[in-house]
Design brief:
363 residues, mainly alpha
Length: 363
């Protein structure tokens, strides 16, 4: 499927408008309410579905099916990324009123990185068909890593490679009582004639470094669904747009999605096998079966539905206990009263990183 230049241009313009709307909406620091997060999450999901319907009408069912399958994969991987984002925002004590600003920079950075990786991936695939096997094996290995690291506790992100590099290259103004709060929303600051960055900049740098790592398995995964660069890019773009709002919508439910890593592992392994079969079918023997796109879409939807239901059911008892009222005074309980939640919100468990500080996916 060849996409005309004007279609690319119109799509890029539309995405730029959506990003501009996101930037405009986040221009004033404020704590995002559940109602606001729900509204914007629904808007972006409707826009993504409407785009897929437009593909179906103007380009046919096959491109639309590939787009929806790719969008679901990237959206589910994005939800998994939110675990790491929650850990970063918590460990860097980013106030709730500035969290959307950090996440917005992360989304913009992810869009740029994905666009670059997609161009590179498309060029490599067109030149070397064997890269399908490499991508497939990489996805299978990633799936194995997700299962192996399931249940790992949170690790310290404050010594991430991006943190060390930033501190080495520029001055970090941790705080300044004359200027006010160190988390006043600014990314840079000049103190005593010396230019430097703020702790909020450090948090953004870590988010961007995480985006880079996540793109390494997200791009092979989407190329396992479709090799059309236009569909790969739009599926990624519409999955990332609205991620900021989705974070505030799901942050209270992240701890309950305990089986998500199993579902993502199965999906990534499935796509990895699909890529290997595609190479064997096209370059070795047509008698070797290939996985049709419609079957990929069914498998992805069914897997996500199953792990979501099993996660919510398995954590229902624990959630009910958490929500139960405290025992009245004089009942014999010696529990200390619960402390109020800090402004930056709870850090969600499940992040891990290797010895170099590079983050890996939260299972």
């Amino acid at each position: 499927m060849t996409v005309p230049f004007w279609v690319w241009a119109a799509t890029m313009a539309g995405i730029v408008v959506l990003v501009a709307v996101d930037i405009w909406h986040a221009r004033s620091p404020h704590e995002v309410s559940f109602r606001e997060a729900t509204l914007w999450s629904v808007i972006y999901i409707v826009v993504a579905i409407a785009f897929g319907v437009g593909l179906w009408v103007f380009m046919g069912s096959q491109p639309a099916t590939e787009y929806f399958a790719g969008w679901l994969v990237e959206k589910s991987l994005s939800v998994d990324n939110l675990f790491i984002f929650a850990v970063i925002l918590g460990q860097f004590a980013v106030p709730k009123r500035h969290q959307q600003k950090v996440l917005l920079w992360g989304v913009i950075g992810a869009l740029v990185m994905r666009a670059i990786f997609i161009l590179i991936g498309a060029a490599v695939i067109s030149a070397f068909a064997f890269v399908f096997v490499i991508f497939g094996l990489f996805l299978i290995y990633t799936a194995y890593g997700l299962i192996r690291s399931h249940g790992a506790g949170p690790k310290d992100m404050s010594d991430n490679v991006a943190v060390r590099l930033t501190r080495r290259l520029v001055t970090v103004h941790e705080e300044d009582t004359a200027e006010g709060d160190a988390h006043d929303g600014r990314l840079t600051r000049r103190i005593g004639g010396r230019f430097g960055v703020t702790p909020l900049f450090i948090a953004v740098a870590v988010i961007l470094s995480v985006d880079l790592v996540f793109a390494l398995d997200s791009i092979p995964a989407i190329f396992g669904i479709t090799q059309n660069a236009y569909l790969v890019f739009t599926a990624n773009a519409f999955a990332l747009l609205g991620l900021r709002a989705l974070y505030f919508l799901l942050v209270g439910l992240l701890d309950r999605l305990v089986h998500l890593s199993y579902g993502l592992a199965f999906i990534l392994a499935f796509i990895g096998v699909k890529l290997i079969l595609l190479y064997l079918h096209e370059d070795v023997s047509t008698s070797i079966p290939e996985v049709p796109t419609w079957l990929s879409l069914v498998v992805i939807v069914a897997t996500l539905a199953v792990v979501t239901v099993t996660s919510l059911v398995s954590t229902r008892g624990g959630k009910a206990r958490d929500d139960a009222p405290a025992e009245p005074a004089g009942s014999g309980s010696t529990d200390r009263p619960a402390e109020p939640a800090p402004e930056h919100g709870p850090a969600v468990t499940g992040s891990e990183h290797d010895g170099t500080g590079s983050p890996t996916r939260r299972p």
